[in-house]
Structures are given as structure tokens and as C-alpha cells.
Design a protein that fits this description.
- The structure is a single chain.
- This protein is α/β, with parallel strands linked by helices and 559 residues long.
- It folds into three domains: 285 residues, Aldolase class I (TIM Barrel, Alpha-Beta Barrel), CATH 3.20.20.70; 99 residues, Arc Repressor Mutant (Orthogonal Bundle); 117 residues, Alpha-isopropylmalate synthase LeuA, regulatory domain (Double Stranded RNA Binding Domain).
- Helix content is 40%, strand content 19%.
- The chain has an eight-stranded parallel beta barrel, surrounded by eight helices. Strands 9, 10, 11 and 15 form a four-stranded antiparallel β-sheet that branches. A three-stranded antiparallel β-sheet has the order 12-13-14.
- Helix 2 packs antiparallel against helix 11, helix 6 runs parallel beside helix 7 and helix 13 crosses helix 15.
- The longest helix is centred in the N-terminal third of the chain and has 20 residues.
- The two termini are 66 Å apart.
């Protein structure tokens, strides 16, 4: 048991922004997206991407629709330097895409970084330095004025180096690293120092990171609104955020920061990154999508994107990962399945999406409905019926759903494993004799008064028998004759039928609820002919009740 945390940890102090506006803000447009999969994500991998994987990731990010992509840390390694050069020299950067690279605030590394970008049509140089107290005092041993002098010097160097390459359209990105842990006045001073050194009116991105997430998302939102108010008068300034996920609230921090005035977000697909990861861009984008806001990113083939990311990162995406995991659209719970089934049945094409337990239509992301409902020991009749209808076209009446769910539960109690739609179909076919009961040979003759006479050939326990009886219709006549021939009390309580398929392949399915002596149970039959399907259903029910009657034509198959 953890004890006495107060002696070791202190809560982050609130900002005290009494007139905050972000809680009531509604997001109506997508932010500018920056993927840092090839930089922040790559440096967090156990085995960083090789050139082929990097190129595959870059091409996928372009295809998804990212217009700003951080492609590396060229001063940190020859591999990153070479990859940036490859993109430029092989003309692999689309005209509407801007690459970004990162550099610490050190002269030789800045020079190497600008060298790597030579010849790029448009580029963002991302420079950073830590400004929080523990970094200033413990890591670097610098006072605030010394930190500001470094910012001014290094941003000035970037300006001189980039001015010498006018063929490239340059944008500066400055990050007061550890922003979320620093005094707001110090962060603002650092940003204003960077803007002044870069030059008034020149395009600049001020990237405000939760380098290490250390407070609740509402505090980060207050920090962003505080900064936004003081920077809104500056031209060509883009406020960006770079949340990490140390407290598990990176997505919330990003969304509240956008409400608080941020224009841009940085992160990785599926939240890859150092420690607990970077902001998950897929999560934020699809959260917007489900609120009616187009994210400007194409995740309509989420499974292909996920498999590519898994290949490039050599890390799996969790099966419960929002929007992309294998199981995130799957319900095993019986009550959940019943609600989903009813909502799908009620929904009409063009209706607003309102399906219980499904915040997004899986088909929008390239998923089918096949895995929405799966059956295990926690499942109920709704899920079973849904799978049989979705995969095999069976529209089970409610009381039949209840009856068959008890059969399924018996199997689940014995085997304890998940049942697929195919497993359920085989169990249903076996239970109701769909694969072994054939329609009896029969002849129906209509009488002048509208009644019918049916003659049928049956195989009873004591051998074949011909029965003939009159009724209001074929079913009534057959039940009357069958009751007389077997000595059983048989009544039809309810009848349902529908077609499966169309055209020459269409088949009728009949569901009859029967009272056989003292038992009430269902029989099911399917045939190209609706009368034959109904007769099979009657025999199915009787066989389930007594196991004594089979149609003559099925005698050999039954044996």
C-alpha cells in the first residue's frame, strides 16, 4: 500500500484564471495537424525505423492527409540526416506538404539542421530549450535572463542561416520545452524573445508542450488561454500544443487546449512516443468526426493504417485502443447486444447515427458489422439473433430467440469459448434439424368451400404411413393428419415466415411455435417452397418434442 504521498508529491497550483472562456467553447473546425511519428515517435522505439520503414510511414502520412510532418532530428544521427536529404533530393515531398525538423538550441546542431534542409521548397525549423525551474536550476544552472539570452542568440542564428537560403520558404517553430511545468510569465517571455529575434511579421509557430504531463487537463487549458490572450495581437503566430500522456489524459488536454485557443496539435498515430506516449492524433481526429466536424484526415481504412503503423513501429496497437482496436466495436454483453440489434432494426438510411454503444459507424472506418456482436458466456438472445440475421438472413421471432439462447448457453457453460456466427449456424441447424429433415411427399387439393385436403407420406415408428386430412389450409390440414397418425396433441400457436436471398436462389424460412402435448417449442424449416418449409418446421418441432417422426424421404439421412 502506498502511504503518505503528501510528504513527497505536491499538487500543481491552479492558474487562477477566473474569467476563463474555454469551458463553453465548441470546436467547429479541425486544427492544423503535425505528425511527429518520424521524430518523437521514432526516437521512442526500441528499434528505430530503418529507411524503408521511414519512407513507408511518410507516404502513409501524406496519403492520410497530413500537411505538416516532422520527419526527423537530422543533427542527432546520420540516419535522420540522410532521410531528410532523401526526401528532398528524390522530390518525395508533395507541393502542399511542409516538412519539419527539430534541433536543440546549440550552434553546431542548428547549423547541421539547416544544412539538412537545403533545397527544400518549404520547411519548419523546430528549436527548443527547457524553461521550467528544475531544468533552469538543476540541469543547466541558469537564471531566467541567461535563458532568454540563449533563446535570442540561437533564434538569431537560425534567422541568419535561413536568410542565406531564400529559395526555401522558412517557418520557425519555437518550443519553451517543459512549458506545462514552468511559470507562465517565463514561458511568455521566452516566446516573445523568440518572436523578436525571428523578426516581426515573419511566420512563427509557438509550440507549448506538456513535455511531462503533470496536472489535470483543465489546468493545461487555463495555461493555453492565458498565453493565447497575450499573443493574439501578434501577426503570423500559430499557437501549437504538444501533449504527452504521462497521466493518461493527453487527448483531453489537447481538446481542452483547442477550446482554449490553440490552433495546432502535434502527436503520433495511436499515441506512440516516449514513456506513455504522445498525443494520439487518430483519437482526437475521430473524436471531432463524431461531433460533426470534418478532421481533414482520412481514416476510412483504419485497419490498413493500423497494420502499417504496427509494421513501421514494430509495436502492436492494443485491441481496446479507441477507434482502431480489434475489439472496440464488439459487444459481448447480452443487454448491450439487444440494444444494438433493436437500434439497427429501427434505423433507416440517412438517419443521424444513434446506435447504442457505438459512438461511430464502424463502416466509416472501413470496418464491417461482422464483429459488432460476438457471443460468449456473457451474451444474450439479442446478440445470437443479430449474428444469425447478419450472416445467414434468419429473422428469429422473439420467443424463438429466447428458446435458442438457452441452447447456446448450455454449450457455453460446457465449452466456455466464444461462438462465431458459423458456430451458431451449425448449432441452430443441428438443433432444428435443418440439415436432416426433408419435406414429406405431399399433395394439396383445394375444395369448393375454400378448405384443402392434404395427402402426405410419413415415416412413423411403426413404418411408413399415408395420412390424409382436411383443414383450413395446408398447415392446418397437415397438423390435423399428423396428430391423428401419431396420437399426439399438436397445435400451432404462432407462425412466422420470410424469404432469404432473391431470384432463383431465394428460399423460404418458416418458424412455427407448437404445443406438442404439454410442451411448447419451436420448429424451423427452410425450402424453396413455402409450404414445404412449413411442413419441415412442423416435423422439426415434433421431432424435438418426441424424436419419433421423420419424413419418409429423410429416413436414410436420419439413420
Amino acid at each position: 500500500m502506498l502511504k503518505q504521498p503528501a510528504s513527497k508529491y505536491s499538487p500543481f497550483k491552479p492558474i487562477g484564471l477566473r474569467d476563463r472562456t474555454w469551458p463553453d467553447a465548441v470546436l467547429t473546425q479541425a486544427p492544423i495537424w503535425l505528425s511527429t511519428d518520424l521524430r518523437d515517435g521514432n526516437q521512442a522505439l526500441i528499434e528505430p525505423m530503418d529507411p524503408a520503414r521511414k519512407l513507408r510511414m511518410f507516404e502513409m502520412l501524406v496519403k492520410i492527409g497530413f500537411k505538416e510532418i516532422e520527419v526527423g532530428f537530422p543533427a542527432a544521427s546520420q540516419a535522420d540526416f540522410d532521410f531528410v536529404r532523401q526526401l528532398i533530393e528524390e522530390d518525395r515531398i508533395p507541393a502542399d506538404v511542409t516538412i519539419q525538423v527539430m534541433t536543440p538550441a546549440r550552434e553546431e546542431l542548428i547549423e547541421r539542421t539547416v544544412e539538412a534542409l537545403s533545397g527544400a521548397p518549404r520547411a519548419i525549423v523546430h528549436v527548443y530549450n527547457a524553461v521550467a525551474p528544475v531544468w533552469r536550476k538543476v540541469v543547466f544552472g541558469l537564471a531566467v535572463p541567461e535563458v532568454m539570452a540563449l533563446v535570442k542568440h540561437h533564434v538569431g542564428l537560425i534567422r541568419r542561416l535561413t536568410d542565406a537560403q531564400p529559395q526555401t520558404e522558412w517557418v520557425l517553430q519555437y518550443s519553451p520545452e517543459t512549458f506545462s511545468m514552468a511559470e507562465l510569465e517565463v514561458s511568455l517571455q521566452a516566446c516573445e524573445t523568440a518572436m523578436a529575434a525571428w523578426g516581426p511579421g515573419r511566420p512563427i509557430i509557438l509550440n507549448l508542450p506538456t513535455t511531462v504531463e503533470n496536472a489535470t487537463p483543465n489546468i493545461f487549458a487555463d495555461q493555453i488561454e492565458w498565453m493565447s490572450r497575450r499573443l493574439e495581437g501578434h501577426a503570423n503566430v500559430v499557437i501549437s500544443v504538444h501533449p504527452h500522456n504521462d497521466r493518461g489524459t493527453g487527448v483531453a488536454a489537447a481538446e481542452l487546449a483547442l477550446q482554449a485557443g490553440a490552433h495546432r496539435v502535434e502527436g503520433c498515430l495511436f499515441g506512440n512516443g516516449e514513456r506513455t506516449g504522445n498525443l494520439d492524433l487518430v483519437n482526437v481526429a475521430l473524436n471531432l468526426y463524431t461531433q460533426g466536424v470534418s478532421p481533414g484526415l482520412d481514416f476510412s481504412d483504419i485497419d490498413t493504417i493500423r497494420s502499417t503503423v504496427e509494421y513501421c513501429n514494430q509495436l502492436p496497437v492494443h485491441p481496446r485502443h479507441p477507434y482502431a482496436g480489434d475489439l472496440v466495436y464488439t459487444s459481448f454483453s447480452g443487454s448491450h447486444q439487444d440494444a444494438i440489434k433493436k437500434a439497427f432494426a429501427a434505423r433507416r438510411e440517412g438517419d443521424a447515427w444513434a446506435i447504442p454503444y457505438l459512438p461511430i459507424d464502424p463502416k466509416d472506418l472501413g470496418r464491417s458489422y461482422e464483429a459488432v456482436i460476438r457471443v460468449n458466456s456473457q451474451s444474450g438472445k439479442g446478440g445470437i439473433a443479430y449474428l444469425l440475421e447478419a450472416e445467414y438472413g434468419l429473422e428469429l421471432p422473439r420467443r424463438l430467440q429466447i428458446e435458442f439462447s438457452q441452447v447456446v448457453q448450455g454449450v457455453m457453460d460446457t465449452e466456455g469459448k466464444e461462438l462465431t456466427a458459423h458456430d451458431l449456424w451449425q448449432l441452430f441447424s443441428r438443433e432444428y434439424g435443418l440439415d436432416r429433415i426433408a419435406a414429406p411427399q405431399h399433395r394439396v387439393t383445394e375444395q369448393a368451400d375454400g378448405r384443402v385436403v392434404m395427402a402426405a407420406s410419413l415415416m412413423l415408428d411403426d413404418g411408413p404411413q399415408e395420412v390424409e386430412c382436411e383443414g383450413t389450409g395446408p398447415i392446418d390440414a397437415f397438423v390435423t393428419g399428423l396428430s391423428q397418425a401419431t396420437g399426439q396433441s399438436i397445435r400451432v400457436l404462432d407462425y412466422h415466415e420470410h424469404a432469404v436471398g432473391s431470384g432463383a436462389d431465394a428460399r423460404a424460412v418458416a418458424y412455427l411455435e407448437l404445443r406438442v402435448n404439454e410442451r411448447t417449442l419451436f420448429g424451423v424449416g427452410t425450402d424453396a417452397n413455402i409450404v414445404a418449409a412449413s411442413l419441415k418446421a412442423i416435423l422439426s418441432g415434433l421431432q424435438r418434442a418426441q424424436s419419433t417422426v421423420l419424413p419418409a424421404a429423410a429416413d436414410a439421412a436420419a439413420g
